[in-house]
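Minimal example, chain plus FE2/S2 (inorganic) cluster.
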Amino acid sequence: MAETLMQRVVEALPFLDDIADDVQPKVQEAVDAGGTTVRNVLDGVWLEAPLHPALTDVPVGAWTAALVFDGLDVATGKESVRHAADASLVFGTLGAFGAALTGLSDWRYLSGGSRRMGVAHGLLNTFGLVLSVVSIVFRATGRRNAGRLTFLAGYSISGMATHLGGELSYHYGLRVDRNVFEEAGPDEFVPVLDENELARDDLRRVEVEGVGVLLSRSTAGEVCAIAATCNHFSGPLEAGDREGDTVVCPLHESRFELCSGEVIDGPAVFPQSRYETRVRNGRIEVKAAAENVQKKIR
Ligand code: FES
C-alpha cells in the first residue's frame, strides 16, 4: 500500500518514536490505574462508539465559531460579537482538554506507524491548545489583537492535527469497526462441527465461507457463535481467556459476551458479529445473524 504524504513526513521524524517510548508506558499505567470503569468511560463503551472522535467535535466546532466571530468583530466592532468569540474560544478550549484525555487513551495500545502518527497528532494538538490558552490570556488582559493572531495560529496548527487524526482512522483503521472487513458468513445454515467435539468450556474457532467463527457453549448449555476475530484490532478470540459466558481478547483485553457478541469491557466499543446456531443430526450448524453489520453494507 502506498504511503501518504503525511506518513512519509512522520517516517522522517524518528524523535517521535523516542517520545512514544517515554510517554506510552506512563499513559498505559495511568489509564490502567483508573480501573475497568475509567477505561470503559474513556474508550466510549457506554456510548457504543469511540468517545474521542465525538469529543473532538467540541473544539473543532467551537473554535471555528470563534474564528468567525473574531472576523465579524474586526468587521463590525460589536461588543456582543466579541463576547461570542471569547465564549466560543473558552468553550472549545475546555472541550479540547477532554478530547486530549480520550485521545491519549486511544493511543495507549498503538504501535509502529500509527503510534508515530499519533504522537505527531498529539504534539500539534498540544501546540494548538497552548496557543488557544495564551490567546485567552491575551484577551483577558486587553491585548485583543495579539489574542486574535495567537488564536489564528493555534487554529491553523489544530487543523493540521485534525488531518493527522483523519489519517489515523482512514489509513490505519484506528477505532473503526473491523467486523466490516470480514465476510458476512452464510445466509443459510451450514454444518461446521460435530456437536460432541464442542466441550463445555471450549472456545473453538471454525472457518465457514471465509469467516472465522468462535463456537462455545454457554453455562446453560446453549451453543453460541460470534466472530472469532476481535473487531478492535483483529485479536484471535479463540486464544483469549474464558470468564463465565464471556471471552477476553488476548491482545488488549476487550471482553465480549459469547452468545450475543455484546461488548462488556473495552477498548472495543462495537459488538462482535453474531451467528445463529442449531444442532441437526449431531452437527452444529451456523448462519449469519440478520443484524450483522457486514450484511447491511454489502
Ligand atoms: S484486538 Fe484489541 S482488544 Fe481485541
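Residues 178-297 form a domain with the Rieske Iron-sulfur Protein fold (CATH 2.102.10.10). The chain has a mean pLDDT of 93.
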